[in-house]
Amino acid sequence: MNNGFFKNAEKLTRLEALYEASKIAFAPIVFQVARALRDLKILEILIENRDGLTIEELANKSELSIYAIKVLSETAISSNILYEKENKLYISKVGIFINSDEMTKINMNYNHYVNYLGLYNLEESIKNKKPEGLKVFGDWETIYPALSSLPKKVQDSWFEFDHFYSDSGFPTAIEYLKNLNIKTILDIGGNTGKFAMELSKKYPKIDITIMDLPQQIKLAKKNIYEKNLTNISFLEANVLLDTLKDIASFDTIWMSQFLDCFEDEQIEMILQKIKSSKNKDAQICIMEPFWDRQNNEIASFCVINTSPYFTAMANGYSKMFRYSDFEKILKKLNFEILEVVDNIGLCQSIIRIK
Ligand SMILES: C[S@@+](CC[C@H](N)C(=O)[O-])C[C@H]1O[C@@H](n2cnc3c(N)ncnc32)[C@H](O)[C@@H]1O
């Protein structure tokens, strides 16, 4: 299933197709112009002046040259961000979204700070199965141990992106977990502890343990000690290398936006390790944004287009899941699928398995 999205390609006329191809060929230019218009506050100025401004007036108010306004606004007109009427420039709905829509802002920052430079090496990354783009930030095998030492803007936009999509699901996910009668939960890939802290605030009686790489556990500990939450513990582990023998005491294993960090063989290996080490009655809840379970095409587009980040920047081999592919892995490992719940926050689904 793909909810009937992305069905236009075969219907385009030759001329429409050439226009689409040209938009793609110039996409990096339009992207950078849109971002510059946002960050140079030109969009904001036009939002404050909805009756339109001449080029001279806009140059004056933005303290930029006439040349700058002409270059930026002409690309913006060609891509529907601005429009022109009787020698005045106006902001369009697209421009308003670029300036003010939270999701668009976060996606744009993530693509500019985290992905833009490194995506130049996508082809090499595909061929070598390595995140060759990551070298723009240093000599790392994957982005995960690098996260806590990336440049501030890169780190901030990575965490904002990650948190925006998973955080929006946390309230509903926590409500969902309420009905499962949980006493002890292991949050694998718990990152900076955001989910654990939300859960802890809501249910102080549940024992929560965050498992992650040592670098992330350090950040999580700092956050959690500052909040003085006492029902959260920590386990440093690399799920690829460690045995996971100490997980038998948990009645629930939680993984949110975690398994998408790995390739199929690794996912099978991790799930198999969990299956053989967990208490036999323990349930596993997996929260992921499956692109074929989204309820609108925009969400599906955003989820799909996160995948090349994994290839060029994160690890060289993982991607956002198509549910039907993921289900095959669960069935191969003989997991019982207890239920799948969609529409968790912006784009997540929870699969509960045993
Ligand atoms: C995309 S983040 C998800 C964070 C969080 N669960 C959420 O929903 O926002 C993936 C997390 O998995 C952790 N991770 C990646 N590889 C790992 C490994 N081999 N062992 C343990 N944790 C790992 C990363 O450090 C990171 O915190």
Report on this model:
The chain is built from 16 helices and 9 strands. It has 2 domains: 9-100, Winged helix-like DNA-binding domain superfamily/Winged helix DNA-binding domain (Arc Repressor Mutant, subunit A), CATH 1.10.10.10; 161-353, Rossmann fold. It has helices at residues 14-25, 27-39, 42-48, 55-62, 66-78, 93-100, 102-115, 122-128, 152-167, 170-178, 194-202, 214-227, 264-277, 297-304, 307-314, 323-332, and strands spanning 82-85, 88-91, 184-188, 207-212, 232-236, 252-256, 283-288, 337-344, 348-353. α7 packs across α9. 48% of the residues lie in helices and 14% in strands. It has a 7-stranded mixed β-sheet. A two-stranded antiparallel sheet has the order 1-2. β8 and β9 (348-353) form a beta hairpin. The chain has 354 residues and is α/β, with parallel strands linked by helices. The relative contact order is 0.11. The two termini are 24 Å apart. It is elongated. The site of S-adenosylmethionine has 17 residues, from α9. Residues 21-88 form the BVU-1015-like N-terminal dimerisation-like domain. Keywords: Methyltransferase, S-adenosyl-L-methionine, Transferase. GO terms for molecular function: O-methyltransferase activity. Pfam families: Dimerisation2-like_dom, Methyltransf_2. Residues 176-332 form the O-methyltransferase C-terminal domain.
Task: State the gist of this model.
48% of the residues lie in helices and 14% in strands. By secondary structure, the protein is of the alpha/beta class.
List keywords for this structure.
alpha/beta, 16 helices, 2 domains, WH-like_DNA-bd_sf, 9 strands, elongated, Arc Repressor Mutant, subunit A, 48% helix, single chain, binds S-adenosylmethionine, two-stranded antiparallel sheet, 354 residues, seven-stranded mixed sheet, Rossmann fold
